[in-house]
């Protein structure tokens, strides 16, 4: 049977076919005679029909199929989600109703209820606490040279992320925080880290080293040229120590010999974690062998509690964390136990000296006083030792000191005197206040213990905040002619414009506090003070700072801001300014801090480097043609100064990440306590 259209098509001229016809042959008509419904027959018949169509007809049909297929896919994806959520929702509703019969949720909660800020911070209504960001763990060290590359993009991203978090809090949080918080220098607000255990309950289970827990998948990247220069300087210093002072406390690079203080290989132990961080595998392995075979604490020798805690105990603990090598923990336990007799005093304020072989302790010969900075700057190390060993006694002893000092009278707006009596437990020599020698690290450790313990020990924070207010009120002044902000001293009501180089730890500590959410004006003060510390180098003939400076309070023609007395013009290769430059660079990214550090580094090389190996302290920073070498390389030059230089010249925030580690006062990084 032919359709009319087919007939018309047959008679019409063949090339033009702008219509569709369907032609059915008699044998193809359904239900007519010889009906064959087999699959093969149907396939053949369809194929024949398809072949009979014109090319245009086939194209149109194919196009229609394709169009329908695309529409199908699009509508499936756009309908899928609503369908899914509808399905889930109805399932959830069913579940709720099934589990809690009779309960029908009219308005399910969308936001969690706002949390109250910590009530104990009531004295500081401007403070609430901040939960530190969760950061990836890093594993590094000489074995695989996990020195990270400059990662400016990453650092900037981190900063950006932090500020964004602050700028866009959920509404509920926003309302709550207006009451209790101040905006920090970056706009951060402090919140409690709920996951961190309080120190008292931390000392239950022995802990693993942080490096063992670490898992870092990030690409290792090359170090900077300035870092390479620091490695070269370290190797040069190490060569001198190895050649002339191996296993002894300090190198005397000019006389090519050594000096002994405790007879415990002080420089070697102080330098262990620096070698790890700098990636000096060979040197590290050699030093490790010495620790394993030759470091013996069972010696009839008097050591200073503070110095051996920050250099030896701190150095061993930090090396244990970085390397994961239990040798260092064993040695740390040994020295920690041997130092404990120092706490057996009537007041529990420790004596300054301990005989680590005999287990006896005593104050200095001329007094029963201890130095305030010394008894309050051993806490990070002993607390960590408790956490690692599960033995509470270390932490208990040092926490008691802090609690006692917290309650003492004799402070001046949070500023402490320099001495404390081991019998009475009272401050002595009242009325003199300094951020320099004998008091300095008291302030540093208030903040750092608070950070170490997860920002929960409010007494520490209170004392720190009060003290910084005291510094601002009594000790901060400006010099002439350059208006440099400096921290002087107060003696019985009289201000002295004297500032120790030691005080230059303060800008770094203030910046660390601001990074952890404290107020913006701490960061402002840090910025002003680090400029001053830099000027203490830049205004001097050798470009190196003296031990002490006096600032001019009144402009005098031809006088600089900084005056130096003949007795104070030595330089001991101290780290404090470089330490603060490191913090400032980490937290601001301002290149000038690296450049200032580079100047200082070059001047150390110019005036203190001894050609046969090692670096030396000098007697006269004002005489470039003869700086008068003193023939001594302090252990902190390797433990601190070069380590902070190396970190300062790095753009990698994960090279000892400051949200994971806190440096002790001898630059040994210890982990910030994580969740239990
Ligand atoms: C180091 O032993 C420590 O940094 C301590 O806190 C102060 N003195 C020296 C460095 O100057």
UniProtKB/TrEMBL annotation:
Positions bound to Ca(2+): 665
Family: Belongs to the glycosyl hydrolase 47 family.
Location of the region described as Disordered in the Swiss-Prot/TrEMBL record: 115-221
Cofactor names: Ca(2+)
Recorded GO CC terms: endoplasmic reticulum membrane
EC number: 3.2.1.-
Amino acid composition bias (Basic and acidic residues), ranges on this chain: 150-180, 202-219
Cysteines joined through disulfide linkages: 504-533
Catalyzed chemical reaction(s): N(4)-(alpha-D-Man-(1->2)-alpha-D-Man-(1->2)-alpha-D-Man-(1->3)-[alpha-D-Man-(1->2)-alpha-D-Man-(1->3)-[alpha-D-Man-(1->2)-alpha-D-Man-(1->6)]-alpha-D-Man-(1->6)]-beta-D-Man-(1->4)-beta-D-GlcNAc-(1->4)-beta-D-GlcNAc)-L-asparaginyl-[protein] (N-glucan mannose isomer 9A1,2,3B1,2,3) + 4 H2O = N(4)-(alpha-D-Man-(1->3)-[alpha-D-Man-(1->3)-[alpha-D-Man-(1->6)]-alpha-D-Man-(1->6)]-beta-D-Man-(1->4)-beta-D-GlcNAc-(1->4)-beta-D-GlcNAc)-L-asparaginyl-[protein] (N-glucan mannose isomer 5A1,2) + 4 beta-D-mannose; N(4)-(alpha-D-Man-(1->2)-alpha-D-Man-(1->2)-alpha-D-Man-(1->3)-[alpha-D-Man-(1->3)-[alpha-D-Man-(1->2)-alpha-D-Man-(1->6)]-alpha-D-Man-(1->6)]-beta-D-Man-(1->4)-beta-D-GlcNAc-(1->4)-beta-D-GlcNAc)-L-asparaginyl-[protein] (N-glucan mannose isomer 8A1,2,3B1,3) + 3 H2O = N(4)-(alpha-D-Man-(1->3)-[alpha-D-Man-(1->3)-[alpha-D-Man-(1->6)]-alpha-D-Man-(1->6)]-beta-D-Man-(1->4)-beta-D-GlcNAc-(1->4)-beta-D-GlcNAc)-L-asparaginyl-[protein] (N-glucan mannose isomer 5A1,2) + 3 beta-D-mannose
Primary location class: endoplasmic reticulum
Function: Involved in glycoprotein quality control targeting of misfolded glycoproteins for degradation. It primarily trims a single alpha-1,2-linked mannose residue from Man(9)GlcNAc(2) to produce Man(8)GlcNAc(2), but at high enzyme concentrations, as found in the ER quality control compartment (ERQC), it further trims the carbohydrates to Man(5-6)GlcNAc(2).
Organism: Urocolius indicus
Record localization: Endoplasmic reticulum membrane
Enzyme class: hydrolase
Pathway membership: Protein modification; protein glycosylation
Membrane topology note: Single-pass type II membrane protein
Keywords, in A-Z order: Calcium, Disulfide bond, Endoplasmic reticulum, Glycosidase, Hydrolase, Membrane, Metal-binding, Signal-anchor, Transmembrane, Transmembrane helix
Residue intervals passing through the bilayer: 59-79
Catalytic site positions: 307, 440, 547, 576
One MF annotation (Gene Ontology) recorded for this entry: mannosyl-oligosaccharide 1,2-alpha-mannosidase activity
InterPro entries reported in the protein's UniProt record: 6hp_glycosidase-like_sf, Glyco_hydro_47, Glycosyl_Hydrolase_47, Seven-hairpin_glycosidases
GO BP terms, alphabetized: carbohydrate metabolic process; ERAD pathway
Name of protein: alpha-1,2-Mannosidase
